[in-house]
Amino acid sequence: MIDYLEGLNEPQRQAVLHTNGPLMIVAGAGSGKTRVLTHRIAHLMKQGIEPFNIMALTFTNKAAGEMRQRIEKIAGTDARSLWMGTFHAVFARILRVEAQKLGFDSNFTIYDTDDSKSLIKTIVKEMNLDDKIYRPNTVLSRISTAKNSLISAQYYADHPIFRADDEAYRRPYIANIYAQYQQRCFKANAMDFDDLLYHTNILLRQHLDVLHKYQHKFQHVLIDEFQDTNHSQYMIVKRLAAVHQNICVVGDDAQSIYAFRGADIRNILDFEKDYPELITIRLEQNYRSTGHIVEAANSLIAHNQKQIQKRVWTDNEEGERIRVLKAYSDTEEATRIAESIFEEKNHHALRNTDFAILYRTNAQSRALEEALRRKEMKYRLIGGLSFYQRKEIKDLVAYLRYVVNPNDEEAFKRIVNYPKRGIGSSSILKLLVAAQDHDLPLWETVLKAEHFLPARASKSISEFAVMIKGFQLSVQKKDAYHAAAEIARMSGLLEELYEDKTVEGMARYENTQELLNAIKEFVDNPENEDKGLAAFLQQVSLLTSAEDPKNQDEDCITLMTIHASKGLEFRNVYITGMEENLFPSSMMINSRAELEEERRLFYVAMTRAQKRLTLSYANTRYQYGQLQNCEPSRFLDEIDAKHLYTDHGRASSSFSTNQSFVRQLQQKPSALKPSQLAKPHTPSENFAASDPTALQVGMRVEHKKFGYGTVQALDAQGSDRKARIDFEHHGEKTLLLSFAKLKIHS
Out of 194, 195, 224, 252, which one is annotated catalytic? Predict the structure, then answer.
């Protein structure tokens, strides 16, 4: 038997053995939180807690799968009975059982983002609204925010603040679209991703018998990456854990980076307010990164005011200092990174998978991809079009969805005339309108097409309906693979793809075969008790974008945004575009909360690196079709300079930048001594920021960190008013006056 306590450090051991009452595990980067979670669950099972009485929630299917495998090694195959998975997967499982209490059938469809946008686009068109003002992305984001805050369509419509806000942005009909959207989803027997949380909240709030059932079922609730939870998620787990109070949350406030999609950092910062008897255990030993990387990240995140205090440390080797690579342009930056990877690979006999290039925005990948292609180096772009988002895959999945749920409006629109059956868009629209006007389910309208369409069109629709009925019989009798293979073949979809002999056409056909392979794998997996098509579709609908079955095992350099890198680690990491207004983003410097989130994002990026970390920035970069002059990110200045060195390489001699930062870094690593660095400034007594509009060239000012300096120039363009100041001990700096706090002395 495996001794699951062996090898744990003291805080880890405490976290595993503490089994009763609320517990918060503050897990610093690389501190072994997954190991603690898996060992804690295994310990609960060893203590006699049945696996089906334990709920463990994660944010990716991959994380859940890895944890389940580890627990199996300790506690055996009983681990397969754990209620473990993503929030959406676990709550979808509950909703499948309880759906009828909310008026849904148990075979409801789960709409992805494309389905939701398509439905919104249809509603906007039907309401004769301007699609340039009511863009699907904008409307869906507004609806999603409302749902994650548990705001119903009715409450939204009745609330004066929401109405005023929408009117100010010239979108007064958002509330109407929201109400229509929810009604159409209900009629289509469909839920979007946000609905899986929203409807679970409604279920537990309005049906006390269901709440009582699951409160007593789940004796222990564990939540991974708690800092990423939103209000809706927290309310569900809070209700479920109310009886036993055995709630264990694991997270790191310093890695909270998803506010843009509803994550609420207050959930972890204020957790103790809901649980006064909370025990907090800090995992502060980093097992991943070298000493320089850990300490550099500590010095950066210390600039955030709102955080849970901890001090991450490591017993790993000190390693080499963090390299700061400067370039004249974004093209040169990309070229130098590609050359650096090429040299590192050959010098240390490394694989491509040892390297990751991270960036703030997807647009930065272009120059990097071109540079890697010139060096003939293989790379994988994470965040591009995933396997399940390709058209040919969505087409076949839509067929499968519609056979299982013939009221699925979005699937119907996608497949009814593909391959072509002579059913025009006007006929499709008439059927959809008829379903609305007569308050009929879509499938009933399809079956009665002759009442709503001319003879020729209704004949084609009737033939389509007969085909779907045949497929439904197959689904009842056959497993997912054999049913799907029949649907792909008999619908004409496979033949349509096979006839296209272009390179692209052949790739689409191969992708469709790959989907059928995935379904066969699902059927052959002994862990999947339900081999039916509906079960497979639920699994597919809940896959995250990073879980693409293609190219997972290839030896490739990884390119991805920093947001996508969370939870991963690489031997060598390159963080590119370290420039003001790019990182931190110009969109995220309007408040301290936004700036602190950007700093946490940089912290996450730094702590992905195990052995070697490189930060790069360019003097010029093309943005929005124009060549922009750039200055180094303020974040570079916030890292303790003793952990950094500049790699001059072939950078252009005409490069000009933040002079204090360059002067600190131009020394050789071996020559850089703490005594040579500027001493921290102690603010004068009663320091208070002056009105920035009173600032004039020549004035003597004081900054809390940089000390005393003289204003050299003012840039008064728009809201981003800047001042160039020559500080006595830190040299010239250009500061945004909306952010910098300056005291005028003369």
Answer: 224
611 included as an active-site residue: no
DSSP assignments along 177-225, one per residue = HHHHHHHHHHHTTEEEHHHHHHHHHHHHHH-HHHHHHHHHH-SEEEESS
Q: pLDDT per residue over 704-721, tens digit each?
A: 878 888 888 887 654 457
pLDDT > 60? residue 659: no
Residue 608 annotated as catalytic: yes
Model pTM? 0.77
> Is 728 among the residues known to form the active site?
no
**Is 34 marked active-site?**
yes
CB contact set of 16 (below 8 Å; sequence gap of 6+):
4, 5, 8, 36, 39, 40, 43
**What are the backbone angles phi and psi of residue 624, rounded to the nearest 5°?**
55, 35
Considering 255, 285, 335, 664, which one is annotated as catalytic? 255
Set 310, 508, 608, 621: catalytic member: 608
Active-site residue, 580 included: no
Start-to-end CA distance of the chain, whole Å, equals: 75
pLDDT in tens, 271-299: 999 999 999 999 999 999 999 999 999 99
Largest CA distance in the chain: 90
Per-residue pLDDT tens digits for 224-242: 999 999 999 999 999 999 9
Which of 351, 325, 289, 344 is closest to 558 using CA atoms? 351
The yes-or-no answer on residue 224 being catalytic is: yes
Strands 570-575 and 379-381: unpaired
Catalytic residue, chosen from 98, 195, 225, 354, is: 225
Active site residue: 19, 34, 138, 710, which one?
A: 34
Structure tokens at 591: 């408040």
Q: In terms of Cα–Cα distance, which of 576, 739, 732 is closest to 656? A: 732
Q: Which helix (H) or strand (E) holds 174?
A: helix 174-187
Q: Do residues 437 and 218 lie in contact, with contact meaning Cβ atoms separated by under 8 Å?
A: no
The structure tokens listed for 660 are 């204090």
Name residue 574's beta-bridge partners: 357, 614
